[in-house]
């Protein structure tokens, strides 16, 4: 039975969840503290007059609705394991009606492999699948070690729902389903997608033993043999506006065959997309591969060879490009990296060894869909809309190899904060003004913790950016301002991961007002509130042991999406923007970021710590 997302979790005790119930609950920050920090983060973005008006609105909120809403929120926190988590799943994901492709689902690009051609692709895919199943054993047996941050254990629930999970479209709101690994009827199959055909492929024997690499290879070959010509791209429906897809889903599931196929996908452990070669493109192969992971490249490329609602779908093309696309409802990037890093390590430990197996295998089952004229018309509509989205996205990767974390740490500075200040300088140099900037801050120190916002644009970062563009400011002063900006950012980061951020608290105050039939307070209607949360830079650090990078789209039309993997001797950046806004350019931002990082290194190198 597919289990719907629930407010209360029953997590089995074991090594992975050994500290789960002892983790603290997410606190509700003090109202006065949040409002003070809110004004501080608004200051660099507003004129004097705008700031004065916002100050007055905040003051009024603090003495009128604020305390009432704060009390209601504290009462909610006392009754819930995590006062935010259910709200956040709906507000950030399930209630959103925009297509999830580019807007919600990130892509992950893993290092290109040496295999070439379909025969070698299938051999590698079999090994890759074995690696994922090996990780599943660790999840099921709870041998995945508890992660820590600053020596403190982190909530591991996100790992619990990576596999056997799927998003289901709805007309007003979506749902998310997963099958517990402790379900007596837990699934034994994955989905394999090739030329738009979707197969159900058993990867466990009836006795529960996993198939060998050779046996999985046989299963994959059987899928290829049954899908020599393309099928209608039924998977492209998952790229539609969620309400449109929700209505079609309700119509499709009235047919028993369609319902059975859709439930098979929802229950599968994960999906594997076997793509052909990427067609030629005018962008470099690595960036093109990233686009393929993010959106499939369009309907004439591989976008129909996907099921974007599936929590984890691994993508392997015929020319060695590999990665994944994941539906964001249940987990952030670090949990995904935990899977992918394990699989890459597993592959490196294994050796090619293929010999036909003589054991009896249940053959793959091709999933059937009864597609009528209305569905076919909607498939065509989805193809057209996705092709527009694909064409509109500008993507650029940046492998910055001049230095990495080692140099920054030698300067006794936080690498993440340093990179965030570089983003501020890069943006300021292009636009001569600062912008609201979102950095993902983890709340996994708390039970069921997800994220809060680290507001990277600060008065300190703006002072530094202005100084860097003013030749009259001496380098010694610029170094001082750089260090102040980095330290300021690190302080805000530490407060946020300790549950003292402001954005989720403000969201909670707004939602608790609505939940209690109250009017939305003026604070949230103030243009300054909108300005300070119009994230022109949406950023996230997702570190990997490999030369891999996560990528996602901007969250506003005139902004950038930036994910980065900081390594000891290099930084890897994935930068996206929309061509429809002529003011943005991933290429120009990449150039500005490169110059900013080099200039910041030069400043520090020319003013060593011993001379400060």
TrEMBL record:
UniProt GO MF annotations: carnitine O-acetyltransferase activity; carnitine O-octanoyltransferase activity
Record carries keyword Glycoprotein: no
Cited Pfam families: Carn_acyltransf
GO biological process, one term: fatty acid metabolic process
Keyword Transport: yes
The EC number(s) this enzyme carries: 2.3.1.137, 2.3.1.7
Subcellular location as annotated: Endoplasmic reticulum; Mitochondrion inner membrane; Peroxisome
Membrane topology: Peripheral membrane protein
Top-level EC class: transferase
Known catalytic reactions: 4,8-dimethylnonanoyl-CoA + (R)-carnitine = O-4,8-dimethylnonanoyl-(R)-carnitine + CoA; acetoacetyl-CoA + (R)-carnitine = O-3-oxobutanoyl-(R)-carnitine + CoA; decanoyl-CoA + (R)-carnitine = O-decanoyl-(R)-carnitine + CoA; 3-hydroxybutanoyl-CoA + (R)-carnitine = O-3-hydroxybutanoyl-(R)-carnitine + CoA
Record's GO cellular component terms: endoplasmic reticulum; mitochondrial inner membrane; peroxisome
Classification via Gene3D superfamilies: Chloramphenicol acetyltransferase-like domain, Choline/Carnitine o-acyltransferase, domain 2
Signal peptide start and end residues: none
Catalytic residues, chain numbering: 328
Alphabetical list of InterPro entries matching this protein: Carn_acyl_trans, CAT-like_dom_sf, Cho/carn_acyl_trans, Cho/carn_acyl_trans_2
Keywords linked to the UniProt accession: Acetylation, Acyltransferase, Endoplasmic reticulum, Fatty acid metabolism, Lipid metabolism, Membrane, Mitochondrion, Mitochondrion inner membrane, Peroxisome, Transferase, Transport
Assembly information from the UniProt record: Monomer.
Biological function: Catalyzes the reversible transfer of acyl groups from carnitine to coenzyme A (CoA) and regulates the acyl-CoA/CoA ratio. Also plays a crucial role in the transport of fatty acids for beta-oxidation. Responsible for the synthesis of short- and branched-chain acylcarnitines. Active towards some branched-chain amino acid oxidation pathway (BCAAO) intermediates. Trans-2-enoyl-CoAs and 2-methylacyl-CoAs are poor substrates.
Similarity comment: family membership: Belongs to the carnitine/choline acetyltransferase family.
Name used for this protein in its record: Carnitine O-acetyltransferase
Organism classification: Eukaryota, Metazoa, Spiralia, Lophotrochozoa, Mollusca
